[in-house]
Here is the input.
Amino acid sequence: MAGLMEDAKYMIQSLLHPFEAFYQIKFVRRNNYVLPTIIMLLCGVTGIFSYQYTGFILNDNPLFMMNSITIFITTLFPYLLFMISNWSVTSIFDGNGSLGDIYIVISYALVPKLIFDILGVILSSFVIIEEAPLLYGFMAIGTVWFIFLLFCGLCVIHEYTVTTNVVTLIVTFIAAIVIVFLAMLFFTLMGKVLGFFYALFSELSKRW
Amino acid sequence: MRVKWSLVWICILGLMLAPVSASAATTFESNYTYDFWGSLRTNRSLPAFELVRTIDNSLLEQVKFQSIDDVHVGGGRIFLVDATDSRVTILDENLQFVASIKLLRDATGRIIVNPETNQQLMLNKPEGVYYSEVLNELYIADTGAERIIVLDGQTYTYLRTIERPDNMVGVTQFKPSKLVVNKEGKISVVVQGSYEGIIELNRDGTFSRYFGVNKPRVNLIDYFWKSIASSEQKEKMGKTFAPSFNNISIDPEGLIYATTYDSSAQDWVFRFNAKGENVLMENGYFPIIGDIHRYRSSEESKFIDIAVTDYGVYAVLDRTRGQIFVYNFQGDLLNIFGSTGNLKGSLKDPSAIAWLGDNLIVTDRYFGVAHLYQPTEFGHAALAAEKAYYQGRWEEAGAHYEEALHLNTNYDIAYIGVGRNYLMQDRYEEAMYYLKLGNARGYYSMAYAEFRNLFIQRHFIWFVLGLAGIAGALIYSEYRYNRRQDLPARSGAN
Here is the structure.
């Protein structure tokens, strides 16, 4: 519990002083994944929350066919995909960050986005259509902040210059697409193989 | 014991009573509508129209329908065009036979003979008909003979022929297929396959102009190639022509409605202003494209006719699935019904649609029959609501919408209607309740803005107190901060 509070201190520091805080996290403090995991789970829950509780005027979602597990997964999926593809790219590009470091950076960077998203959902119940752009502008602050923190954090943990970081980020996106493609290929093929064995089994079981 | 037996007898007698609404059983299967999400799960609807009668050869005496290609209702009569037999059959409102026109007669009752060719003047594959109540004239688009024939509206004697005007420009062949005539006698003619638009003729038969803009859909790839091609290359490329109109209708205000099923068209239903621009309102959940669940282009709705009531509700007939889509003037989809097939009431080859009061006549070219649909109790309520709303009787419209809601709780348009009515009465909370159910976010936002204003006005003191509290806290903290800053400075000075 005390460690968690210590982590929270670093997290709050990282919001306004990302370079220093992420440096401290990487080199001074040993990695602890409880707080980042809590933030990640909260992020998924926020996805569900905003799907369901965004005010009626701005909420076009068919709530009667809502599936919270799907929303949870689809909210977290891009971040985890980014984590994996960034890790695989930076291992080649001489990045010093470990998978755990990247995980911590992403989750701490998500904090302002989380806060602004939740605020946006709450405020969305009190706006009318004409005020919607203002609300979206307000929520965009969180997203911009998130991107800024992510960028700084990755710079620090990989010990990159800005240019290298930009290049690795571009490659990261390409790698993410490749990963998705391979995953789809894998699952399709696995499905075919399983289907074959299933057909074999049902054929055999009908004969004997 | 006697009581028991009498109860049994009452039950048996009750079973012998004939079911009251037998005809509704023929239409309930195919009635549906689309909700806000276009969801297939929630779109079943109560029937708004039910089949009451079929107009077929049993109504006629000697000559029979070979096909029915167009139907028009005007002056209390129904005009049915048979292109195969080159005949126009006229029935009255009670579906009694009135007249049948093939050979044209003059005022004295003699058959007209062309003195040059010595041939009788008779219809040649007509495809359209229009009766002008103001002018008391019957216009027949005599497609096969490339002319328009004008008859007297009561006696059906021959008045005049309008042939291709001498001053007509463009490359469109003068093969009138469908036509309407406005109150001033201007004739608007649709020629199938013409990319120049609707032909507008003056009352005397001279050419006025081409009318109606039908924008083609722009293909992104074509656009790219055309943007880099040289002008010589462009000449060799296939030209993109404006899609052609296939049918036309006119409302009592004189605005012309048209349809197209050309796959390259952007819009499929048109309502033209005097300049020829499309001013159709599409404020419903979906644009006016008929069926929205389209996986292949062959499943797209293809509109072949449109019928407009005098209160803005219009019905479009779809060739793909023999369906009739009923929209109100704002573009809300009221109901979808009808199907293709060989069953009674189904259409094999749908050709035309017309309103007979609040009833709908739908014709089938293949079987040569027309089906008469009448509104159900729910349909009556829905149409009455639209009528009252269109004519500006808001209160009455609200009452009718509520009646429709009692009959069909899945009727989203009525939720909007009721909510809109409350909104106009400044009853915002009720309005918000109904508009939320109707998924009308625009109206909901209006109601909510007013509701929020009232809320702030009513609780203004709390907002003031809250703001004052925050301001006070800020000032106090500043004050304390400055005092704490000041103290050591002062002690340092001392």
About this structure: Chain B is about 25% helix and 25% strand. The two ends of chain B are 117 Å apart (CA to CA). Chain B has three domains: 22-394, 404-457, 459-494.
